[in-house]
Amino acid sequence: MAGPVTVAICGCGSRGLDAYAPFQTAFPEKMKIVAGADPRPDRLEKLQKLYGVAPDMCFASDDEMLAQPKLADVMIVATMDRTHVKNAAAAMEKGYDVLLEKPISPDLGQCLALREKAHETGRIAVVCHVLRYTRFYAALEEMVRSGQLGRLVTIEASENVGWWHFAHSFVRGNWRRQDETSPMILQKCCHDMDILRWLAGRRCLAVQSFGGLDFFRPENAPAGAAARCCECPARDGCRFDAEKLYLTDPHCGIEHIGPQWPVDVVATDPTPEKLRAALRTGPYGRCVFRCDNDVADHQTVDLLFEGGLTATFTASAFSDTIYRTIKLTGTEGEVWGDMGRQTLTLHRFGQPEEVIDLKDEKGLFSGHGGGDFGLLHSFFDLVLSGGRDALTGVDASVESHVMALAAEHSRARGGETVDLAAFERQALGAEA
Ligand SMILES: NC(=O)c1ccc[n+]([C@@H]2O[C@H](COP(=O)([O-])OP(=O)(O)OC[C@H]3O[C@@H](n4cnc5c(N)ncnc54)[C@H](O)[C@@H]3O)[C@@H](O)[C@H]2O)c1
């Protein structure tokens, strides 16, 4: 097919419009947005203004856009977690190839049904596991595959969410409740499960998990704390004070980072005045100890892979910055990786240490360590070439979802060991 690939964006939020649409500006020969759907008029206006989408190609909902005849080659599905399958399945039936945000669904039966739908329709369905497209994880995978570590024996990985990021997304924000979106181990860590599965290069057989919601609970509120920060007598001594966080905090205050994520989630085209107004009445101005959140703020998972390879994974809200670390050991060597610092330290046994610096001094790989645009290049190249062999196609992605959902099943049952094949069979039975 000759480029650019035409695109309809379903859900023009932070991912659809802010993370993926800018690819059109950078690579107009690959991507041309021709339609979009979102109930928020400000998002559709932005789509028209920045990307030249015609007003009559902007729709107030997913259903409205999907009721039209096929409008583009591809649909990017970037709505919220629980509508992904509905949107992606309808799009594939209409003949769209699909780029689908993760998680596929918090319901395993639905994940399996979507895999089936992709097979049935023969459409491309790629899931946005952006980490596989980063230089950091690609270098690790190459190291494993090339045999530099010998036979892989263990993996230790951690995801450090960042206390302020956790408060923003998982206490005050969209992903605070399992019944509305997904459990944290799926929502945040299906990426990590996908990376573990990819690096392991073999199927995961069983998991066991512990964890829970420890800190962001009413009993940990400062004495006399109010329900909203703007009315709170304890705000001066509280690092979660919403005005402080979104205006002056070095990690996420507009004074330091400008009008980008996460302040652009609090208010569209944010200014300090708009932020103050949003924090007075909106969800991001609530006390972090008095929200309606229920997702875990720390969780560990033990995993057993084919051939006896073992892995451990820890996710925690309690870190200063956002970063992941990983250590792999093999019969011939070990490697320790810090994604925050973008370094890999390799020890081949009996040889000197080697430090591989993957830093991106020119900022060419921004957006999930380069994963966002790496994913888009790979996806559009696949569509343009008429290929079918995606790095993060729905078949591969479903495996990470089985792992994450089985981990949540285990955590909810005090760490019971879950056999993944049986877990998947049960979900298939329930779906049939
Ligand atoms: N791949 C990644 O690394 C990554 C990172 C962050 C989020 N995500 C995923 O992306 C998805 C979207 O997250 P986000 O941060 O962009 O959230 P968001 O709230 O910014 O965007 C979702 C958008 O969907 C719109 N929407 C709601 N109902 C709709 C409907 N019926 N029809 C059309 N649009 C509708 C909302 O108005 C909003 O603009 C989530 O499922 C999330 O898990 C993935």
Number of helices: 17
Q: Mean pLDDT score, rounded?
A: 96
How much of the sequence is in beta strands?
15-25%
Strand order of the largest sheet: 14-13-12-11-7-10-9-8-15
Percentage of helical residues?
25-40%
SS-derived structural category: alpha/beta
User: Which CATH C-level class of the largest domain is it?
Assistant: Alpha Beta
SSE arrangement:
Blueprint: E1 5-10, H1 14-20, H2 22-26, E2 31-37, H3 41-51, E3 58-59, H4 62-66, E4 74-77, H5 84-94, E5 97-100, H6 108-121, E6 125-127, H7 135-145, E7 152-160, H8 163-172, H9 184-187, H10 190-200, E8 204-212, H11 242-248, H12 254-257, H13 263-266, H14 272-281, E9 298-305, E10 310-316, E11 323-330, E12 333-338, E13 343-348, E14 354-357, H15 371-385, H16 394-412, E15 418-419, H17 420-431
Bound molecules: nicotinamide-adenine-dinucleotide.
The site of nicotinamide-adenine-dinucleotide has 25 residues, from helix 1.
Could you describe the 3D structure shown?
The protein is α/β, with parallel strands linked by helices and 432 residues long. It has 3 domains: 5-129, NAD(P)-binding Rossmann-like Domain (Rossmann fold); 132-216 and 296-365 and 392-431, Dihydrodipicolinate Reductase, domain 2; 218-285, no CATH class. Helix content is 37%, strand content 20%. The protein has helices at 14-20, 22-26, 41-51, 62-66, 84-94, 108-121, 135-145, 163-172, 184-187, 190-200, 242-248, 254-257, 263-266, 272-281, 371-385, 394-412, 420-431; strands spanning 5-10, 31-37, 58-59, 74-77, 97-100, 125-127, 152-160, 204-212, 298-305, 310-316, 323-330, 333-338, 343-348, 354-357, 418-419. The strands form 2 sheets. It has a 9-stranded mixed β-sheet with strand order 14-13-12-11-7-10-9-8-15. Helix 6 (108-121) packs antiparallel against helix 16. The longest helix has 19 residues, at 394-412. 47% of the residues are buried. The mean pLDDT is 96. The structure holds nicotinamide-adenine-dinucleotide.
